[in-house]
Amino acid sequence: VQxxxxxxxxxxxxxxxxxxxxxxxxxxxxNYYYWSWIRQPPGKGLEWMGAITYSGSTxxxxxxxxxxxISRDRAENTVYLQMNTLKSEDTAVYYCxxxxxxxxxxxxxxxxxxxxxx
Length: 118
Known about the structure:
The protein has no helices and eleven strands. It has strands spanning 2-6, 10-11, 17-24, 34-40, 47-53, 58-60, 68-73, 78-83, 92-101, 104-108, 112-116. It is globular and about 40 Å long.
């Protein structure tokens, strides 16, 4: 299974971030996998942002829920992340990952750097 994140490297404050996780070698609808978005700000640890399950249910980190939306396109085998009202603190490497639940991941994308700056 391979995961590939893509999106803009630079976003202005207050704008909306849209990231794509393209999955190959496995279906995003396969029981019972969760597809998570995780980020790592510079010098800090990993932060789980949210996930969409094989059935399409979504789960969010409560601290980010008001600004975050995760969706999918089954035909394209792709998972999406949208985050609005970006701040400089959202600067991070953003990863997508597959797991059987939250916190247990067996495949990761290589990550994509997002910098929030004017």
